[in-house]
Specification:
Elements: H1 2-20, H2 32-45, E1 53-65, E2 70-77, E3 80-84, E4 89-103, E5 111-115, E6 119-126, E7 133-141, E8 154-165, E9 170-184, E10 192-203, E11 208-212, E12 215-219, E13 228-242, E14 245-258, E15 266-276
Antiparallel strand pairs: 1-2, 1-15, 2-4, 3-4, 4-5, 4-6, 6-7, 7-8, 8-9, 9-10, 10-11, 10-12, 11-13, 12-13, 13-14, 14-15
């Protein structure tokens, strides 16, 4: 099947990069500045409100959906652009634009492919944070889906917050938002959805890190047991350079022991992010 070939290619390329690619930050012991740069970049990439410009491309494969064990694929293009608005405050713009393959779950073949709904978030965050790093601002739901089954058909807005600490080699934090629909197609269901992502990262040598980043969601418009999706799992990643370009590459796997009926019991998340550290060209 064509989509299965795509998954194999993506996983194969990511594995080759993670295991086989040379890491330009990984140098001989007489290069402490380069090693310090690696650790600093690890911290910046794991901080959602850092001053680092990045362009993550994240592929989410959700397996075994419906009676025919179909696979949904969501490719998220999600640039992060920080701007210093005053000497004391930064505005961080985080945009998620999904490109979705949505199979017909009650049929063995067929589906729809196109854009999903855009999800921009804006965080106002201190330019010089203390030990506790935080940001707060609005999250939006914009109905950009190119097909009715790829989106919710509603414009929505709600609050979003991120809080984290970075002691030693650790990054520990949580990001949460809740979005309510305020306009859109009156024939479509209202939106009242909650998202919480906690993240635990432990940084290793030569740009490697261990990561746990499950995304917990709740649809308040439906009753239990179909309200919550609660995944468990994690993965591994690496900060490296491809030529002169710093990148962040990771692979994660999650099971969904708590989930709505007919949805995916497990999934795979592959991410490739271009990094643009401040002051670098």
């Amino acid at each position: 099947m064509q989509t299965d070939i795509h998954y194999g290619i993506r996983l194969g390329l990511l594995t080759a990069l993670l295991i086989g690619a040379p890491c330009a930050f990984s140098q001989t012991p007489q290069a402490p500045a380069a090693q310090a740069s690696t650790a600093e970049l690890q911290k910046q990439t794991q901080n959602p409100v850092s001053s680092l410009i990045s362009v993550p491309i994240q592929n989410n494969s959700n397996f075994n959906i419906g009676p025919f064990d179909r696979t949904q694929d969501v490719l998220n293009i999600q640039p992060v652009i920080p701007v210093q608005v005053t000497t004391t405050w930064n505005l961080i713009t985080r945009i998620i634009q999904p490109i979705v393959w949505q199979p017909y779950t009650n049929e063995p073949t067929g589906g729809e492919y196109g854009l999903g709904d855009m999800n921009p978030t804006f965080f106002l965050s201190p330019a010089k944070p203390g030990k506790v790093i935080w940001g707060v601002g609005p999250a939006f739901l914009i109905p950009t889906a190119t097909n009715s089954i790829l989106g919710q058909g509603k414009f929505g807005i709600g609050p979003s917050i991120v809080v984290l600490v970075q002691p030693g080699k650790w990054t520990l934090g949580v990001l949460a938002n809740n979005i309510w629909s305020v306009a859109g197609d009156s024939s479509r269901p209202d939106v009242n959805q909650f998202l919480l992502q906690y993240f635990v990262n432990y940084n290793l040598q030569e740009g490697w890190f261990l990561t746990i980043q499950p995304i917990i969601t709740a649809n308040w418009e439906v009753s239990n047991p179909n309200r919550w999706t609660v995944p468990f799992g994690g993965g591994v990643g690496r900060i490296m350079k491809l030529g002169a370009q710093p990148v962040n590459i990771s692979a994660q796997f999650y099971g969904n022991p708590v989930r709505p009926a007919g949805t995916s019991p497990w999934g795979m998340r592959l991410q490739f992010a271009l990094l643009f550290p401040k002051g670098k060209k």
